Amino acid sequence: MFFQLHRNVQLRILTSFLMRMVGFTIFPFMAIYFSDEFGKIASGIILGLTVLVSVMASLYGGYIADRRPRKKVLLIGQLGQVASLVMMTTSVLPQIDSPILMLIGFVGNTLSNGLSNPATEAILVDSCPQEQRRVMYTINYWSINLSIAIGVMLGGLFYQSSKLGLLIALTTVAVFTLILLQRYLIDEFIPKPQKEKTAVLSSYRPVFADRRFVLFLLGSLLVFALEFQLANYIGVRLHESFKTVNVFDFDVTGVRMLSLLQLQNTLLVVGLSLFLPKLLKAIPERRALIGGLLCYVVGFSLFASVNTLSLLLLLGLVQTFGELVYSPIRQTKLADLLVEDKRASYLAVSGFVFQGAKYAGAMGLVIGALIGPFGMTGLLLVCGLLGMFLMDYTLYRFPSPSEENYQKIS
C-alpha cells in the first residue's frame, strides 16, 4: 500500500516518523526541565504561551501557504527547526548549560513547527487522489502511533542520562529531513493570483463562515476532548480511587493502571491499524464511522467512573477499536471538506481542534471535582454523542457541500 502512494506522501510519512520518534525522546519531558530550572508556575506560563505561539504561527503559516509555493514555506519552517534545535543542543553543553538558551530554542521550534504544519498537511492532500486518502491516513495514523511509542520509550530510558546525545540525534535527523525535502519533494500547488492584499485574520473569514466545516470541527473537538481526559481527570481519578490489585506478584496501582491502558492502546493501534480497515471494507462508510465513534465515546465515558481492572481493560479494547475504525474515516472526510485553493488556511483552523481539546482536558479536572465520577461519565457521554451527531450531520446530511458554501461567501 505504502509504495503505491505519491512520492511526496511517502517522503513526508518517512521524515515525520523519524522526526517524531526522536522528538518524543525530548519534548514530553520539557515540562519537567522547565519546572526544575524556573519553577512550576513559570513552567506552566511558558508552556501556556507556547500553545499561543503555535496557534498564531499556524494561522500565519496557513495564510502564506495558500499564497506562496508550499514547498518554500515548508522548507523555511524546517530550516527554523534546525536552527532552534542547534540552540537547544548548545544550551545543554557542559561548558554553556543555559536554560535561557534552551527556552529560546524551544519557543523557536514551536514557532517553526506551527509555521510549516499547514503547508505540510496541504501538500499531503494535494499529492493524494481522493480514492487513496483513506489508505494514506491509515498508514500515517499507524506511523504516528509507532513513532510516539518508540520515542517515549527511548526518552524514558535515556532522557536523564543522555539529554545531549538525544538532542544531537534530533538535530541530525532534522538536517537529514531538510535535505530530503529540498531535494525530492515536488510542489504541485500553483497559487492563484491575489486581486488585493488581505490581512492575515481577514483572510480566514471565508473559512470561519463555512458553517459545514466549522460544525464538523466542533464535533471533532467534542470527541477529541474525551481523549484528553485520560491524562487529566481520568488519570487523577484512577490515582485517587483505584484500589491496588496484585497480578502475578505485580501491584497494579492507579498510576500503573493508567499506564497499562495507554500501553494497551498503543500496542493495539500499532498491531491492528493497517489490517482492520481491510476487514471492515464491506461495511458502509457512514455505518462504520458511527459505530466507531460510539465505541470510542462509550469507552472513554465509562473510564471516568469504572474501577475494576478487567472492566477497564475491556473498555480500553472497545475504545481503541472505535478509534481505529473512525479516525482514518474522519481524516479522509476532513480532506474532502477543504476548498482547493484554501487548503492550508482550512488546515490551520482545523489545528484549533487539538488545542481546544487540550484545554477541555484541563477543565475536566475542575468540572470533575464538582460533579464527581458518575456526573463526569454522563457529561463525557453527552459531549461525545453530540460530537458524533455533528460529524454525522455535516458529513452526510448537510444541505450543501463546503465548496458551494465558500463560493457563496467569497
What is the CA-based Rg, rounded? 22 Å
Structural class: mainly alpha
Poorly predicted residue ranges: 401-410
What string gives the helices and strands in order?
HHHHHHHHHHHEEHHHHHHH
Number of helices: 18
Overall pLDDT confidence: 86
Portion in helices: over 70%
* Fourth CATH level, the homologous superfamily of the largest domain: MFS general substrate transporter like domains
For the termini, the CA-CA separation is 38 Å
Portion in strands: under 5%
CATH class of the largest domain: Mainly Alpha
SSE arrangement:
Layout: H1 7-23, H2 30-38, H3 40-65, H4 70-91, H5 99-127, H6 133-158, H7 163-184, H8 200-203, H9 205-208, H10 211-227, H11 230-241, E1 245-247, E2 250-252, H12 254-272, H13 276-279, H14 285-303, H15 309-337, H16 343-350, H17 352-397, H18 402-409
Helix pairs in contact: 1-5, 1-6, 1-7, 2-3, 3-5, 3-16, 4-5, 4-7, 5-16, 6-15, 10-17, 11-12, 11-17, 12-15, 14-15, 14-17
